[in-house]
Amino acid sequence: MQLPRYIAHRGLSKHAPENTLAAIQAAADAGCEWVELDVQCLGDGTAVIWHDESVDRCSDGQGTLIDMTRDQIRHLDVGSWFSPDFRGERMALLDEALSLISALELGVNLELKINPGHDPVELANTAVHRARQVLPLDRLLVSSFDMNALESARAQDEKLALGLLYEAIPRRWASDAQRLRPVSVHADWTQLDQERLIEIQSAELALLCYTVNDPERFASWWDHGVSGVITDDPALFDSRYQRRTR
Ligand code: G3P
Ligand code: MG
């Protein structure tokens, strides 16, 4: 699998409300080839694209996802907090996001987001199953901080591309890799460790860093073998990714 150099974090979240269909569309409009999206399940099992445990920060409502149903989240406005231009934006169902990604011929790094109280196996089974039905395997990269979620994803398909997601890369990364057979390791760039980086390179795995919005400070890491960045705005790195706003 050819992993991208730039992945738009939560869609083009610099210019549109994160993890929405608008942010996916904005990424495509800007010329991005890949987006990263967080997926989790509501209390009724519906898979939605959302980062936080609750809807408080990024909507006009309140409450935790685990206590909500599909009918309840559909009433939320998830765009106005970002800008009045996005008023009326609805929380994206996973199925809607996958359809749009497919139509736009994007790749997606689907992050299985396990917030407190959520079941990693349920999420992996639901989300990976749907993603594999809609997208070709070369445009799907599944990552998670939760190794149990990745194990369930791996059990579904030996060919599925997996990314081990960490903050600081722990010593145990190699045993996780042996168990899960990933194509990549994803790490918080502010906590990179040169020793781990060399180990990952030696294992011939890609290293993707998040969330990189400071190209100057990041620059030297490219020379150390980082293969890609997850960024709120790929235009910070390459002017080909034209910024467009509504
Ligand atoms: O997948 C990389 C990055 O998205 C992980 O952190 O909190 O932005 O989901 P977060
Ligand atoms: Mg994420």
From TrEMBL:
Give residue ranges for domain GP-PDE: 4-241
What GO molecular function annotation could you give as one example from this UniProt entry? Answer: phosphoric diester hydrolase activity
Q: Which GO terms describe its biological process?
A: lipid metabolic process
One Pfam assignment? GDPD
InterPro entries from the UniProt entry = GP_PDE_dom, PLC-like_Pdiesterase_TIM-brl
Q: Which PROSITE patterns match?
A: GP_PDE
PANTHER family xrefs: GLYCEROPHOSPHODIESTER PHOSPHODIESTERASE, CYTOPLASMIC, GLYCEROPHOSPHORYL DIESTER PHOSPHODIESTERASE
Q: What is this protein called?
A: Glycerophosphoryl diester phosphodiesterase
Where does this protein come from, organism-wise?
Kushneria indalinina DSM 14324
